[in-house]
């Protein structure tokens, strides 16, 4: 295992430092980077919130949270104590400019260090926080600001957020994070496409029948009900995660991989998405909401019960048929699907190739399956190429589907790091390749907003589906209407 490259010392300020994202993802990721020797001794992690703690209280809280969210084999006492000693806490009311003296004093102790401001808080606070950072002289040329999705709730609000943050920080200092882009399997998609000569000539409408991007979650909304009521599956998942994966599948080869070339090519894909007319929205989108059902054999309530709103029409499921209007992808449908309380937890990209033009083996009609490349993101990261082979034995040729498997853990003999580990270190390095640029975010919203407007005009309620199933039957109809079927992947 190669040693991790140490990043420059920095002050890592987490607004919302006591919140769910911070304790579940950000602090464990920083701990693991510390464990691998990637954080220099001078690096500090500063929690900022209105929780009313002091530094000792914050360290005690994080100690308990690390025990919950870091596996026992990775939690050693020496690293834990070293990491906890990096932690400081300041009480900040992000929207009150008179309440920033504590943070100013804390950061003044380390003038000249790289400052990373991670906004793990409501998007409505992004603008006020950045404005107060400027008013208090805390944002300098070495600072970076990290924005969690969603960036706004529609195109106009996204532009407003980008304007407010852009009034303080240059675009090169703004890191709009999508943790799916930090997954090893997603990054490896670029390598698979562009570092292997056999695949790229087939990566077009001449050879590919269709593409599926599936993100299924077996859990319900849990404690995120308040947020989810204002977002729904379309804003929470499709506008960012699913469209970003679509971009990586469909983008043209950049001249080389650097900070902007990949993002330039992703933007071109978003701009080439076929506009959604009201008729397209009606025919090519399905919204669903989970009702009561069984999850792992246990009875669970429906979404309306989870959020205590019997009138809620928020979608927890969406399926969309999208098309890209360019030479490479003309006529190739992209089916995007995501939902909560599904029958499994599975995220995958499925590239299905066209069938052989002529069944040349006697008796093979209807027995040969199309080739498929399946990129698995969770629960296990890997890649599988489905092929057809001859079944061993005499008495003629019998065809049998087989697969070539790449399991990252088995192949590289180590688990893949969490996406946040990679992305947080890229922020410190100032490398924006795996982050969304302003024009990407706004292009995605421009396309998604057509669906939002179409839904509003049709006033069509989400289709109900029982918890623990694979979504509403309308989603099955959506793809079967084209003579295709959803790929149901590995369960967990």
UniProtKB/TrEMBL annotation:
InterPro entries: G6P_DH, G6P_DH_AS, G6P_DH_C, G6P_DH_NAD-bd, NAD(P)-bd_dom_sf. It holds the Pfam family G6PD_C. One of its GO terms (molecular function) is glucose-6-phosphate dehydrogenase activity. Pathway: Carbohydrate degradation; pentose phosphate pathway; D-ribulose 5-phosphate from D-glucose 6-phosphate (oxidative stage): step 1/3. Keywords: Carbohydrate metabolism, Glucose metabolism, NADP, Oxidoreductase. PROSITE patterns: G6P_DEHYDROGENASE. GO terms for biological process: glucose metabolic process; pentose-phosphate shunt, oxidative branch. Residues 190-487 form the Glucose-6-phosphate dehydrogenase C-terminal domain. The keyword Oxidoreductase applies. SUPFAM superfamilies: Glyceraldehyde-3-phosphate dehydrogenase-like, C-terminal domain (SSF55347), NAD(P)-binding Rossmann-fold domains (SSF51735). GO terms for cellular component: cytosol. NADP(+) binds at residues 50, 149. Its EC number is 1.1.1.49. The keyword ATP-binding does not apply. It catalyses: D-glucose 6-phosphate + NADP(+) = 6-phospho-D-glucono-1,5-lactone + NADPH + H(+). Residues 13-188 form the Glucose-6-phosphate dehydrogenase NAD-binding domain. Substrate binds at residues 179, 183, 217, 236, 340. Catalyzes the oxidation of glucose 6-phosphate to 6-phosphogluconolactone. Belongs to the glucose-6-phosphate dehydrogenase family. This is Glucose-6-phosphate 1-dehydrogenase. It comes from Rhodococcus opacus (Nocardia opaca).
